[in-house]
Structure formats: C-alpha cells, structure tokens
Design goal:
With 175 residues, the protein is an alpha+beta fold. The protein folds into two domains: 52 residues, no CATH class; 92 residues, Arc Repressor Mutant, subunit A, CATH 1.10.10. Helix content is 27%, strand content 23%. The strands form three sheets. The chain has a four-stranded antiparallel β-sheet with strand order 1-2-3-4. The longest helix is centred in the last third of the chain and has 13 residues. The N and C termini lie far apart (61 Å).
C-alpha cells in the first residue's frame, strides 16, 4: 500500500488519488459521518462520478439479512426420526419416498400449525400447487397423497392440507 492510500485509511489525509487522475475526497461532518466524493478528470476540471454518506462507527450491512420470522435463524423443519423408523418397521413400503416428498413441503409449512400454505399469499396450498412442488402428474400425486393420508403423514381438512405433527414439526414444541 502506498503512503497516500495509507494516510487516507488512517484518516491523516482526506484525499486519496486513484490511477488515471481520479481521486476520492472525504469531508467530515460534526456528527462524525463522512461525505465521500469520487471525482474523475475532465480536461482541466473534474466531474463528480459518485457521492455518498459513510458512517465509520456503523458496521457495514451483511449481504444476506437474517430472516425475521425465525428469530434470526435459518428456516428449519424438525423431522421425528423415531416415528419414521416406526413406519419402516411396521412394513410401510417406500418410506424414504414419502418422507422425501414431505421434506419438499418444508418451506410451505406454516409455523406452529403444520398447515401447508402458499408463501406469498398465506392461503392454503391447492392441489395444483402441491403438484408443481412435487413435479409429478395427477396419478402419482393422487397415489402419494393417498399413501400419506393412509399412514397419517398428511391430513386434509376444509382449511387445506396439514402435516402431521407426529412426524414433522416447524416451530412447535413438544408438550
């Protein structure tokens, strides 16, 4: 790092020359923030390319803000492994396929209720939306839903589809 850049970073100087005649200028305000100006040469004069305010006391924002609905944690779904192992020991065929399809619905499970909802509208998922999530035809979807209902992984009410809290939980504590 050259001396002029180091002086700018160490706040000894308020001007940092950039190659090809451009420079970065910093003006300090009474409250401690900086007004930064990036200038480029234009003949004998210079033109302002960009201006912005910078607060050196405030840390820079992260690229990804944590989700607010999860208390800052990434969204999660709890899978009750012992219950699923019971299904396998009871002779249920294709347990892995059923559980895999249930895991695809993880993003669509409403917190604390287990209801399957559309993420944007917050309305119950419709048959066609479930079909789009599973990326399958009517026959396969009917077969999957029938098996899930038969083994109580999923149940349907007038309010829409619900995931059984016995197998999958999202934000719900065991009482």
């Amino acid at each position: 790092m050259d001396k002029k850049t180091r002086d700018f970073v160490d706040e000894i100087s308020d001007v940092m020359p950039i190659p090809e005649g451009s420079f970065l200028h910093r003006e300090r305000s009474p409250n401690g923030t900086y007004f930064m100006t990036l200038r480029i040469p234009n003949g004998e004069d210079s033109v302002v390319l960009e201006e912005w305010w910078k607060n050196p006391k405030k840390p820079a924002k992260k690229d990804k803000d944590p989700p607010k609905h999860t208390g800052g944690k990434q969204p999660y779904v709890m899978l009750m492994v012992k219950e699923i192992e019971k299904l396998g020991s009871e002779g249920v065929k294709n347990v892995a396929e059923l559980v895999g399809h249930i895991s695809l619905l993880g993003d669509y499970i409403e917190w604390n209720t287990g209801k399957l909802i559309n993420k944007r509208t917050k309305k119950p998922l419709k048959y066609k939306e479930v079909q789009a999530i599973f990326k399958c035809g009517n026959k396969k979807l009917n077969r999957l839903l029938a098996r899930m209902k038969e083994y109580e992984l999923l149940f349907a009410t007038d309010g829409g589809y619900h995931i059984s809290p016995r197998f999958v939980k999202k934000g719900k504590m065991k009482k």
